[in-house]
Write a structure and sequence with these properties.
CATH topology: 60s Ribosomal Protein L30, Chain: A
Number of helices: 5
Largest sheet: 4 strands, mixed
Radius of gyration: 16 Å
Structural class: alpha+beta
Oligomer: single chain
CATH superfamily: OmpA-like domain
Amino acid sequence: MKIFSIIITTFLSTTIFAQTKTFTLLDTNVIAGQIYTTRQIQFDLAKRTVRPESNILLDSIVSFMNRNKKVVIEIGVHLDSRAIKHSSDNLSMYRATSIANYLIKQGIPADRIIAKGYGAIKLLISDATINKANTREEKETLHVYNRRVTLKVISS
């Protein structure tokens, strides 16, 4: 359990310092390059459709985009490393497109949204670190950190 705590503590402290320019969905003064990371947009296992419980957060993105009329965002979907590369890249792109389509259906112009599927190329915790965890539960918890959606301000 100690190694798990050390890995998590190291990961969290590294992440906090790595993201010096972040914003919230309540901000109205955003700068290009800022990134918002969330794990609250959920998908069924190996599916591209957004789960209904994610709509609350998606609706807050719509509100953010409506308050910031000039903002263009990149929606990045990141997966963990356990899938086959080709299918992981495709799945992450399909998921990013599903999020973009939701925003477009809510009235956000398509030219203000860029969908990007990253697959497993931008892991926050490496497989080598995950493999050092003692239990399957610890490893799964570490994999969860790699699965995320990012919203990056492209222009403001």
